[in-house]
Write a structure and sequence with these properties.
Elements lengths: L1 H51 L7 H14 L23 H4 L1 H22 L4 H22 L3
Helix pairs in contact: 1-2, 1-5, 2-4, 4-5
The chain binds heme C (HEC).
Length: 152
């Protein structure tokens, strides 16, 4: 009898340890996606500042480097929004609708990837107007998703 009780305790302790481990892993995942999103934010802010200053021709090399950075970062965050991250103890701006409207969240990602590709394609040789337009489209793709899926 006593043995069973002890085994029960041990099992419960193991289950708790396992769920703590899983929660820890989910927290790591959330932190990783936020780091990537921050880098994306930094690269895009730099482009936006250059566009706003009408300085694309003079700062072409920076625009090209930032567009390439965006292109490599843009596909990365989304696999880190798995359902296991819903219960994270990390402070997150992710809205629960991410998991109830998975198709909408996916569509917003697809939009971003297309916009980032289009910006990258004109970054080196496009006219300043073209670059500004494509950068604007990227901004709309960021904002469109944030409006729906990120807390203010
Ligand atoms: C498909 C939806 C989606 C798209 C597209 C998107 N984001 Fe976000 N973004 C989010 C969500 C959701 C969060 C909140 C993540 C969290 O807190 O766990 C976020 C958070 C951020 C953050 C805050 C990161 C932090 O924790 O400090 C920045 C900066 C950011 N996004 C920039 C951008 C930029 C710039 C773009 C466009 C180049 C972009 N995002 C496109 C969904 C998106």
């Amino acid at each position: 009898m006593r043995g069973w009780v002890m085994a029960g305790f041990a099992g419960a302790a193991l289950a708790m340890a396992a769920s703590a481990l899983a929660a820890g892993a989910a927290d790591e995942t959330v932190l990783a996606r936020q780091t990537t999103l921050k880098s994306m934010g930094k690269a895009f802010k730099e482009i936006r500042t250059i566009v706003a200053a009408n300085d694309i021709a003079a700062q072409r090399a920076t625009v090209v480097a930032d567009a390439a950075k965006l292109k490599s970062l843009a596909p990365q965050p989304w696999s880190k929004f798995g359902p296991e991250t819903r219960g994270t103890s990390v402070k997150t701006e992710a809205k629960p609708v991410i998991w109830t409207d998975a198709a909408g969240f996916k569509a917003a990602q697809t939009k971003l990837l297309a916009a980032v590709d289009a910006l990258d394609a004109v970054a080196a040789k496009g006219s300043p107007d073209e670059v500004a337009t494509k950068a604007g489209d990227v901004g709309k793709a960021c904002g469109g998703c944030h409006k729906q899926f990120r807390k203010e």
